[in-house]
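Thread: Newbie trying to understand structure tokens

Hi all, I'm a second-year student working on a class project, and my supervisor (Dr. K.) asked me to get a predicted structure for one chain before our next meeting. I've only ever worked with sequences, so writing a 3D structure as a token string is new to me. If someone could post the tokens and maybe explain what I'm looking at, I'd be very grateful. Here's the chain:
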Amino acid sequence: MPKFPKIALTAAIVGLSAPSAVAAQHAPIATESTAPSPAYADYADLVVAAPVIVDATVRSTVRLKPTDSAGLPPSMARLYVEADVSALIRGTDAMPARLGYTLDVPLDAHGRAPQYRKSRVLLFARAVPDQVGQIQLIRPDAQRGWSAAGDALTRRIVRETLAPDAPPTVTGIANAFHTPGDLPGSGETQIFLSTADNRPISLTIERKAGEAPRWSVALSEVVDAAAPPPPRDTLLWYRLACSLPATLPDAVLHSSGDDATVAREDYALVITALGACDRGGRS
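---
Reply by user tm_fold:
Sure, no problem. This is what the structure looks like when written as tokens:
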């Protein structure tokens, strides 16, 4: 069994995930041939939360004693993992060639932990302060089995996230109203969203008599009603589909009567067009 410096093991234990995360499901790493296609929203959740993302190969694992695994149910174990870094996908600081971290895993019917040695993985993590070479996974399932599709999707989302024109995080709806047009069946609904950094995002749904409603999204004060909706599996789609409420809250609606009804219908049209925020079965 490999020996680990006491300071490294202590640092890893200190940097554990929150106890509430222990109940999350942990499946053994799938091989590339058996792994399902990665879900954009699932990987986007990981990328936007992880300041450190690495492509690595597991070098060794050590099962920690119960005294170092506080809060775990008997059906799970805590491992100390060391992995050799192949590539730094995201991170601002120099990364050591070898990283250590803890991982909570399910035990099989015989009480054995999964074997990860030599497995190639993607790690979504943060650095442990003042502990060089130690990282903390951002959530219990933030060690993912490497696949070409998962690697490519991760890198694409990183590029989208770091782009100068990346859409901000949507935190809710600020206000919404419908303005009827001069002709029956015409009008415009505008929905202004609130964001984490107060940058503007607005939705515009335009109705013309005898035509299907059209909607667009603007990332500035200038609204281009002719702009197409965001394609699925892009960062802007993710910001909207995975953040907006299912229905338009009454508290933000600044219209009444028939205008309020149309505004709700227009918002529902946007939600339907965006589609479900599919996280590949993960909540």
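A couple of things are worth pointing out once you decode it. The mean pLDDT is 89. The two ends are 37 Å apart (CA to CA). Feel free to ask follow-ups in this thread.
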